[in-house]
């Protein structure tokens, strides 16, 4: 009878320990180091980079054209918020003709940790109270001298 109790205790202990382990989740681009190293400034262009690495995670909208390949691995313990364990960004910069100028890699050193203050977003300007928020626009809609029409039709008729 004793060996069955020991086996049950070992199985229970193993189940409890498995419940305390972290869950890993990978998001974004899965980088193959050989392919990343194959991108050479002055040799490759947009078509060859897309053929080698695939479509970027996102591309810059302003300034020099830059393609970003973003990868992140998070770990989450039960009943906790996920934490970033690994993070990498590959930024491929192109010139006006579409040729590769540079290929840079960043890691956790560029990750910014943001701590919001409470449940409100601070804004510049006048602080308004509850009553000003509630009654502040009374008399503002269709006031005399405004460019808005005062009635249902274009001429107020």
How many H/I helices? 4
Q: In percent, how much strand structure appears in the residues? A: 15-25%
Estimate percent helicity.
10-25%
Q: What kind of sheet is the major sheet?
A: 5 strands, antiparallel
Element order, helices and strands?
A: HEHHEEEEH
What coarse outline follows from CA principal-axis ratios?
Answer: flat
Q: What's the rounded overall pLDDT mean?
A: 80
Q: For the record, give the distance between the C-alpha atoms at the N and C termini, rounded to a whole number.
A: 96 Å
CATH class of one domain: Alpha Beta
Count of distinct strands: 5
- Radius of gyration based on Cα positions: 29 Å
CATH third-level topology of one domain:
Beta-lactamase Inhibitory Protein, Chain:B, domain 1
Low-confidence stretches: none
Structural class: alpha+beta
Question: What is the name of the CATH architecture of one domain?
Answer: 2-Layer Sandwich
Task: Provide structural commentary.
- This protein has 157 residues and is α+β, with helices and mostly antiparallel strands.
- Helices cover 24% and strands 24% of the residues.
- The chain has 4 helices and 5 strands; from the N terminus they run H-E-H-H-E-E-E-E-H.
- Strands 1, 2, 3, 4 and 5 form a 5-stranded antiparallel β-sheet that branches.
- The protein is flat.
- The N and C termini lie far apart (96 Å).
